[in-house]
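Project standup — Tuesday

K.O.: blocked on the structure for the chain from last sprint. Re-posting the sequence here as requested.
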Amino acid sequence: MRFAKYHALGNDYLVLEPKDCPTLFSAEAIRKVCHRHYGLGSDGILYGPIERQDGTFGLRILNPDGSEAEKSGNGIRIFCRHLLETKLVKEGQEFKIHTIGGIVACTVFDGGNRIRVEMGKVSFRAPVIPHVGADREVLGESITVNGKTFKYWAATVGNPHCVIPVENLSSDLAKTYGPALEVHPNFPNRTNVQFMKIVDRKNIQIEIWERGAGYTLASGSSSSACAAVAHKMGLVDADLTVHMPGGKIMIGIGADTSIVMTGPTTPVGIFEMHPRVTDQDVVL
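H.V.: unblocked you, prediction finished:
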């Protein structure tokens, strides 16, 4: 079975094409393929392009725990790079990708080193995220995990996010509180978690705990959600840079809270994985 591996600021994905695997394998096998020791190692699998009748490139995004994500900004950029590498799209040509979190318009520049994605509109409304409780925008509410209470903003850009502004940012915040926040009952479908520091009106810094993946060096959807929250709070301009441990993503915010994300991708290699039948190896 053939996989193409790429990373976007250290957030790595394996691309698996349906022509090489017509039937997607089990959640257990996905976990083993993504495992850093027993498999190829990745933050997820991008399954596509899936044939569609609407002119878009169909894409399914599988988390390393075997669950499915609605949308992934880095995953989408990586998939764009793969479409360019396999000559299904051309540089400078706008095309659309269909995810279960919505359709996004994309353009590849500089040989795939710069990819622009229109991520869609951010919503803060509870039923859309989804978030428990009355129909409202979830802005600056309190949440308690592991004996500590935070103020958080909830948002969706096709997938759920819990954004917590802090003055002192560290990776330990995401690693310590992220697991409990991800599964907090306020979020029926679990949530991505970001701790965010405002640097100035054009820069924010975030640490990320990604739903289904854990601590992550970078995330496009997290960058989008955090930028939208910071702008909603009135603390940043409409064009800003999001700084993460893996690198930087540029975000533009429209008057209707639509998000345009621009960032790089990097090919890693092509891998062949052969089925084996043992307790520890991957069974495909």
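K.O.: great, moving the ticket to review. The chain has a mean pLDDT of 95. Residues 73-85 form the longest helix (13 residues).
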